[in-house]
Design goal:
single chain; 15% strand; alpha/beta; disordered C terminus
């Protein structure tokens, strides 16, 4: 089979594209003609970091990530990255994964540590850390708020359930009835207010005269007070004090059951007898009202008197 020029050209173009892609991928993870140092770092989670991502020191790109693979059966991940710059840092320096922007891009940076320890060499494993991103910080701040909001919603739900239990059908009817009664009361109050206004308007002259009389009475009382001021108040107070002493003696005798009044007020048996007599008198009057013929007899033919029979109401009450 003879190949045409067009077919050969297509094969060459496709081969060139494939070689370009392979070369670009290789150059992305490897720098040609440079003496780079290779380091490792171990993480439990790389948070979306991938091969080819840049590696920086103090914001300056100095290399890239060459490989990410599982280290052991526990799922720990080993990151291998290169540092092309001749910048030196100690073995205790930190390889930190951080967010490159708000949208969540990840990258790796070396945080140099100068504590007097030996300088790092190619092949060393640095301590790996992960800087919390904006999303994690926001989540951390919102989590307590979410718990508080959940508690508030649960309490509100409990309150609503309680209100729903209280406001059952009978309660709703009672509330409607109360509102209707309140409306009637307000209307009655409005009518009473209107009647009161009418009453005040119709009796304005009488009220004016009453106020005038009150004013005159006040003047007379003022005159009386002046007269009292001029009177012998001292003698009157002495007489009043003597009267109060006599009244105190009388009250003391009454409390000690001396005399008729004291015995009447303090004798419980007499009180009970009077109370019993009062009840019997009440029953007698009630029976007289219900059966007057039992006490007043008038007959032209000499009708025989009926035997006494207790009132039905009294029997029921007993």
């Amino acid at each position: 089979m003879k190949l045409t020029k067009e077919l050969k050209t297509g094969i060459i173009v496709v081969g060139g594209i494939v070689l370009f892609i392979l070369g670009f991928t290789f150059l992305k993870t490897n720098t040609l003609f440079s003496s780079s140092r290779t380091y490792h770092a171990v993480y439990k989670d790389v948070n979306g970091l991938s091969s080819g991502n840049s590696v920086s020191i103090n914001g300056l790109q100095v290399g890239n990530i060459k490989n990410i693979k599982f280290l052991d059966a526990k799922g720990n991940l080993l990151i291998t990255f290169s540092v092309d710059n001749e910048f030196q840092f100690s073995k205790n320096s930190i390889a930190e994964i951080y967010d490159t922007g708000i949208i969540g891009g990840k990258s790796l940076r070396v945080v140099p540590v100068y504590d007097g320890s030996p300088m790092s060499q190619s092949g060393d494993t640095l301590k790996g850390t992960i800087q919390r991103g904006l999303t994690e910080l926001v989540t951390e701040k919102l989590e307590p708020l979410q718990k508080s909001l959940d508690a508030v919603l649960n309490n509100a739900d409990s309150v609503m359930v309680g209100v729903d239990d209280i406001l059952n059908e009978d309660s709703r009817k009672n509330i409607k009835s109360s509102l209707a009664n309140l409306d009637v009361t307000l209307r009655n109050f409005s009518q009473a207010s209107a009647k009161l206004n009418t009453l005040l308007s119709d009796n304005k002259e009488k009220l004016d005269r009453s106020l005038t009389n009150i004013d005159n009475l006040s003047g007379n009382l003022s005159k009386v007070s002046d007269s009292l001021a001029e009177a012998n108040i001292g003698q009157a107070m002495a007489n009043l004090e003597g009267s109060m002493d006599k009244l105190n003696n009388i009250m003391t005798k009454i409390e000690s059951s001396e005399g008729s009044v004291g015995k009447l007020l303090n004798d419980e048996e007499l009180y009970n007898n009077l109370e019993g007599a009062s009840k019997e008198m009440e029953l007698l009057l009630e029976d007289l009202r219900l059966n007057p013929k039992r006490y007043v007899h008038f007959s032209l033919f000499g009708k025989k008197q009926k035997a006494y029979k207790e009132p039905e109401e009294e029997t029921k009450s007993e």
